[in-house]
# Entry
Amino acid sequence: MERTYNAWTTRRDIMKEGHGIILGGVLEREDTSESRNQNLNTKDDEKVAWVSLKRSAGGHRIATYLREQGWDIEVLDFWPAWTREELLQFFKSRVREDTYWVGISAMFPLGGSGAKNQAKVQEMVGIIRELKELYPQLAFIGGAQNISAVLAYPLDYYVGGFGEYAIVEVLKHVKGEPCELKVHKRIYWGAERNVIECRHDYPAFPMPEAAVKYEERDYIQPDEVLTIELARGCKFKCKFCSFTVLGVKDDYSRCAASLDAELRENYEKWGVTMYTVSDETINDNPEKMKKVAEISRNLPFELNLMGFIRGDLLVAHPETWQDIWDMGLWSHFYGIETLNHEAGKFVGKGMNPERLKDGLLKVKKWFEDQGRYRVTLSTIIGIPGETRETALATKDFIKENYAGHSYSFAPLYIADGDMMHMMTNPSEFDRTWRESGKFHELDQEYLDNLDWSEIPEINHEFAKFYIQSPGIAKWGHDTMNIWEAMKIFSEINHDPDLTKSLAPGIFYYHRYITGGKYQLDDMMKDFNEIETFSAKDVLFQSKWIDEYKRKKINANLDNR
Ligand code: B12
Ligand code: SF4
# Structure
C-alpha cells in the first residue's frame, strides 16, 4: 500500500471522480462463419476454449469517455484468458480506497459448443462471484449492445446499447450523488435484473467525438487490428436487421479532427495502421467517405480498413470507389443476403440481381486493378421468396467468381418472444413475423419428426441451436422453412469446390496477423498458400496474451 500510495494520489487529484476497472473480452464467438467454413471436422470435444485476440472496442471507448469526465479507468483486456489466480492478483494490486466499480464489457455471450467452452463459462461466472464476495464495496456493471452478452454473470447493473451517457448516471448513483438513473427491473433467465436501456433512455448517437485513447498500460502492439468508429447508425432499415441505430436521417459521422487525431496518435504511439471499422454501413453516406479519404490521404502512414459495405450502393455509385480506395478500405464485407429479386425487394435490398452481379464484378475488377482487394460475401438462406434453387444459384455465383475470397451463408434468424426484450433494437422480422402474414410457425409435430440424418452430424450442434432453442422463431413461409434452410446451409457448407480456394474473412485478419505469424499482404493469399486458422493458432495466441498479462500484472503503477 505504501508503495502505491504516492503514485495514485497524484493521479487521483486529476481523476477526481474515482477509479474503476473494466474487464474487456469476448469480441468474437467460437462459431464464426470463418470457423464454420474451415474447421468442418473439429468435433465438439476437440474444441479449445475460445479467447479472442481483439481489444475490447466498447470497454476502451467507455474508459476513454469516463476519463474525459474525470475518472481513472484501467481496462484489462482478454479477460476470459486470465486465470482465477491472475485476476485475483490483478485486483489485489489495483483496488484502492477510491475504487468504486468494475465493468464487464462483451460483444457476444461467452462460450460455444464443446465441453471446454462450457467449462470456461462456468469458470468465469465463478470468478466474478468470488470477486464480488472479496470486494463487496464495488458495483459490478455489465455493458454490451445486447445484454445477452453479459447476462450470464451475476452483476448489479446491465447496460444495453451505446453506453457513454448512461454509465455516467449509473456511477453517480453508485457514488450516492444526485442523478437521474432510469433502471428497468426485468426478469431474464430466471432472475430479476437491473437493466439500463440506453437506446431509449440515454441515446448516445450521434457521437462525433467517439475516439478511443489507449494508454501505456494497454501495451498495444503494432500488429494489432484495432476497432474504429467512423459513424454510428445506418440510413436504412432492412427487415431482418437488428443493429441498434437504423433509419438515420442526419449526419452521424465522426468529427474529422477527432478521427484524424485518433489515427495519428495510434500510429505515433503504438505503430498501429490496421482497423476494423465498426460502422453498420460504411458507404451509406458519400460525404462521410470523402471526409475519411481526405484524412487518410494526409496521414504519414498507409491506413488499412476493413468493414461492412453495401454492395448495391457500390454498384449504383461508381463515383465513390476512388474515395473508398483512398481511405485504405480494400477489405469489404458485402451483406448481399440474396440474389433472388423477390426476396431482395421484400427485405429492402431490391436491386435487380443481374445488375447487381454484373456491377459487383466491375467493382471487383476496379479494386483489383488498384492493387488490393478482398471481400467476404454474406448471404441469408430463407428470406421469403428464396427457394432451394435460387439459394444454390447464389452459392454458384460466389463459387465461380470469388475464388480466393471468403463467404458467409447463414439460415434466416428471427428472434422470438422473451429474447426480443433484451435486444436493443429487434428487427422488423423479430417484431412482426407472426402478424406479417408472410410467415407461419412450424408445428411441434413437424419439428419432432425431423429426419436428422438429412444433415451431416458435424452441423447438428448449429442446427439444434436454431431448431430447438427457445427464443428463435421456427418460421416457415411459402417457399422455405427453417429446417429446409438448415439443410441448404449444410449442403452449401459441404460443397468441396467452394472451400477449395478460401481466404481469411475480412473481419478476421487479426487471427493471422497479430502475433506475427503473417503480414497484411498475406491476407491476399488463400489457404493453399497460408495455413487455415486452427486450434494450434489459438494456443499460439494464448502465449501472446500471456505476455500481455505478464506486463499487466508486473506493471508499476507510475507507468501509465
Ligand atoms: C462490427 C460488428 C461485427 C463484426 C466484427 C465484430 C468484432 N469482433 O469486432 C463481425 C462481422 C465479425 C460481426 C459478426 C457477428 N455479429 Co456483430 N456486430 C458488429 C457491430 C456492427 C459493431 C460492433 C462494434 O465494434 N461496435 C463499436 C463499439 C465501440 O461499440 P460496442 O462494443 O457495442 O460498445 C458500446 C456498447 O456496447 C456499450 N458498452 C460496451 N462495453 C461496455 C462496458 C460497460 C461497463 C458499459 C457501461 C457499456 C459498455 O457502450 C459502448 C460505447 O457506446 C454490432 C452492432 C453495433 N452497431 O454495435 C454488431 C453486433 C455486436 N453483432 C451481433 C451479432 C449477432 C453478430 C453475429 C452473431 C451475426 C451472425 N449471425 O453471424 C456475428 C458473430 C461473429 C462471431 N461469431 O464472432 C450482435 C450481438 C448480439 C449478441 N449479444 O450476441 C450485434 C450487437 C448486432 C445486433 N444488434 O444484433 N459483428
Ligand atoms: S442490413 Fe445493413 S444496410 Fe440494412 S439496415 Fe442493417 S446495417 Fe443498414
